[in-house]
Each structure stands twice: as C-alpha cells, then as structure tokens.
Specification:
With about 325 residues, the protein is of the alpha+beta class. It has helices spanning about 5-10, 40-45, 60-65, 155-165, 170-180, 210-215, 245-265, and strands spanning about 35-40, 65, 75, 80-85, 90, 100, 110-120, 125-135, 140, 145, 180-190, 200-210, 230-235. The structure holds beta-D-glucopyranose.
C-alpha cells in the first residue's frame, strides 16, 4: 500500500481544502474525484516574472524540461500523464485534490536545486544546514536550496543559493565547486505540499564534501534573512527532522559516508572530479514568452501523441477549471 503523500494532505494556508483522491492516486478518470481549482491570486494578478501566463503555447510546454521516474532530464512531451479535456499535463505522483497551479509559477515541473555540503571532523560527518522560517515563529532545518531562476543552469542555482543562504561568496566556494563534488544524491519529483495536479516540484540535490582546508575557509553568513534565520554545521547523527524530503537525502549521504569509510578507509573521495557529472540542464524553462495571448497558429490541433501501448489518462468527470487559470491547451 502506498504511503500517504504530503501533496494529498498538506497545503499552504492560502490553499482551499484538498479533495479526497480515492483509493488509487493514479486513477485520473475516477468519477468521484472532484478537485478544487486554485491558482494563487498573486500569480494571476501580479504576473511575476517567475510565473507562467495562464496560457502558455502548447509547443513550448511540450519542450519544457522535466525529470522522469529514472532521474533523467527529458522533455515534458515524453510524459504519458496528460489530461486532454483540460489540456494540461498531470502530476506524475498522482492526484492532489487541487487543479491549477496553487502557488507554483509554472505549469508542469517547477525546478528547484538543493546543495548538500558535508565535512569530516574527528571521524564524524558534519553537514551545513539552514534554519528556515516556515510560519509564525516556526522553523525547520534544511539544505541551502531554492528555485532555478529563468535562464539559470542548476549548478549556478546551487552556488547562488549556497551564497544567499549559508556562506560568504569567496574563493573557498569556487574550490568547493571545482574539486569537492561527490555527485547527485537525488534527481526527480518531490512530494511537496505546494504541488497540485498540474504543477509540481522537481529538484536535483547535489553533494559536495569539503576538504579540511576548504571547510576552514568557508565562512558562515546568511544574506537572505527573510527566509533563513541562520546557517550552521551540524553533526549528522543529531538531525532527526528536516524540511520536505531533505532527511531522506541526508540519510543517503550518511549511509554513503559509512560505506566509503569501510571501503576506502577514509571519508568521501573528495578531490577528484565529480563521480556523477552535472547533468546538462539547458534552461529548464528558459524559453521567454510575453504575457500576451499566444498566436492561434501555435494552438494544438490534436492532443500530444502517446507512445504505443499507453493509456489515455482523460479525466472524464472532472469539472472544468474555475480559477481563471486556463492551462496550455491552446483553446484561446
Ligand atoms: C526548496 C527545496 C526543495 C524543493 C522541493 C524548494 O522550494 O527550496 O529545498 O527540495 O522546494 O520540495
């Protein structure tokens, strides 16, 4: 039996209640499924640069980069989860009880990047974490991380977020990125409380293990004080709860550390090139489009092709969207 996902039970306060998803999260044509349509007012009215226009040219959506179930970066056109009635791609993790974009800017995948920095002190693994503000007075531990900005490549996001949330931007950061990359710990969909049926988080979490010298030159500093209260090094064995899926990744890194101690007699091999090279992630949502209706010529005449043998995930009884957020069906 599938574990209950956060995207089916939790939501930011601005969200309406999530509708029940029934017994099968992937049964999109469930006649009982009656999700609420919701896109944050801020997105619809203020049209921030990081968010899509309610209508995005369908051909552009098809080319948008996502991460598939194997952790590979692919075009969204390869996804078989598509709602022909609404003209929207569907969350690969299943139903969420809400359609539209919620507070996520992009239709489909919304890209984040997480940076996991460790060091070894007295035969123990330490990790660099931030204390993130998540509500009135509440905070939670997390890796330095954030959304991939327009036109940014994931490695640039990792560096930018690290220097905004945890350390000063100095030559030690260059050394860390040049010499200490261990690899990608996670690449894929994230069970995030902001997810909707039509907008969801994907991330890549990269691990860097600082040598003693690099670690000694990293200076802790927080620039983004609206979101982050402080950054600090923590003994990994003292951490039991973290933001989103971060604890799973920390456990993975800790497990790798313990096996690498057994196999190599030392901590991670941190001076060579990355074990897993950076994935070339050209402009995840880099095509610029103006906030005007797209040309009729770009509207799809037929739904996207499904690969042989794939089923049509049409939501037969789902209500039409009622939040003024129209999707990318080209029905303008
Ligand atoms: C956070 C990341 C997290 C991602 C998915 C982003 O907003 O900054 O740390 O991995 O959301 O939950």
């Amino acid at each position: 039996m599938q574990a209950t996902l956060k995207q089916t039970i939790l939501a930011p306060v601005s969200y309406p209640a999530r509708a029940g998803i029934g017994d099968n999260a992937y049964e999109w044509d469930d006649p009982e499924y009656n999700p609420s349509a919701f896109t944050d007012k801020f997105i619809l009215e203020k049209k921030p640069a990081w968010a899509d226009h309610p209508h995005v040219p369908f051909l552009e959506i098809l080319k948008r980069k996502t991460i598939n179930g194997k952790g590979e970066i692919v075009e969204l056109s390869t996804s078989k989860h598509y709602d022909f009635r609404e003209g929207r791609f569907l969350n690969p993790l299943g139903k969420t009880g809400i359609t539209g974009r919620g507070m996520l800017g992009r239709w489909g995948p919304n890209w984040a990047a997480d940076v996991i920095i460790t060091k070894e002190v007295s035969e123990k693994l330490w990790v660099l974490l931030c204390e993130k503000q998540v509500g009135d007075g509440d905070s939670v531990l997390c890796f330095p991380a954030g959304m991939v900005d327009e036109g940014e490549h994931v490695p640039q996001t990792l560096r930018r977020e690290l220097c905004e949330e945890a350390v000063d931007d100095n030559s030690a950061v260059d050394e860390l990125f040049d010499k200490c990359c261990i690899g990608c710990v996670y690449a894929g969909w994230v069970d995030d409380w902001r997810n909707t049926d039509n907008a969801w988080m994907v991330t890549q979490a990269y691990h860097f293990h600082a040598t003693v010298e690099v670690a000694s030159k990293l200076t802790l500093a927080v620039k983004d004080t609206t979101e982050i209260k402080k950054s600090a090094w923590y003994d990994v064995t003292t951490i039991d709860k973290m933001y989103a899926s971060h604890k799973d990744w920390l456990d993975k890194v800790h497990g790798d550390y313990k096996s690498s101690k057994v196999e190599n007699g030392g901590a991670f091999l941190s001076n060579g090139p990355p074990h897993v090279p950076f994935v070339s992630n050209d402009l995840p949502h880099g095509v610029k489009y103006p906030f005007v209706s797209h040309e009729a010529s770009l509207a799809p005449k037929t739904p996207p092709p499904l690969s042989a043998g794939e089923e049509t995930p049409i939501g037969k009884k789902r209500p039409r969207s009622a939040d003024g957020d129209t999707g990318h069906s080209g029905d303008a």
